[in-house]
Amino acid sequence: MKINSTIFIVLLSILFIACGGKEEKKKDGFSVDRKKATEKVEETTPATNEVPASERITLDNKGVGQIKEITLDPEINQEMVTAGAALFKTNCTACHKTDKRFIGPKMQGILDRRSPEWVMNMILDPKLMTEEDQCAKDLLVEFNGAAMANQNLTVEQSRQLVEFFRTL
Question: Mind listing the pLDDT tens digit for each residue in 59-94?
């Protein structure tokens, strides 16, 4: 029994000696030493005061396409507005909101920024417009390459949409 006690005490002493006495710093995972930058990092892109394409006013641009000239009556045609509103709801609301920016630009005030011909040409052939019209190209860039889908609308339907846009 005395030998067992002695062996137990010796083993216990070795265990205490092996575990104690050293202060070991634990490293949990990885660490990053962050230092404050003392120098100002120069911006890689110059700050510009350029107006975004969605807010730019280009009323003299008629765009590229089949619509060369259109005259809007001073009085708004309510039948066309109703038809245009229905078209907008079914064909355009996936990407456009009337009063705020979404996947595409907002439609409120569009005729204050673009000519009716430009709007109709964009509706009728968005691919041609984004290939050949600078404003449409700029919009494509501004909206992260989200190209407008061709809805295969007729000239009359695009005209109804323009009439609806006049009421926004």
Answer: 999 999 999 999 999 999 999 999 999 999 999 989
d(CA 127, CA 147): 8
The number of angstroms, rounded, from the C-alpha of 142 to the middle of its chain's C-alpha atoms is: 8
CA distance 61 to 115: 7
Predicted TM-score of the model (pTM): 0.68
Answer whether 104's CB lies under 8 Å from 148's CB. yes
- Alpha-carbon dihedral sign for residues 50, 166, 164, 122: negative
- 75-108: burial string, b at 16+ Cβ within 10 Å, e else: eeeeebbebbbebbeebbeeebebeeebebbbbe
Sign of CA pseudo-dihedral 10, 14, 16, 21: positive
Alpha helices in the chain (DSSP H): 2-19, 78-87, 110-113, 116-124, 126-132, 134-142, 155-166
Q: What is the largest CA-CA distance in the chain?
A: 116
The total of other beta-carbon atoms located within 10 Å of residue 45's CB is 5
Residues facing residue 58 across a β-bridge: 114
Domain 53-166 annotated CATH 1.10.760.10: yes
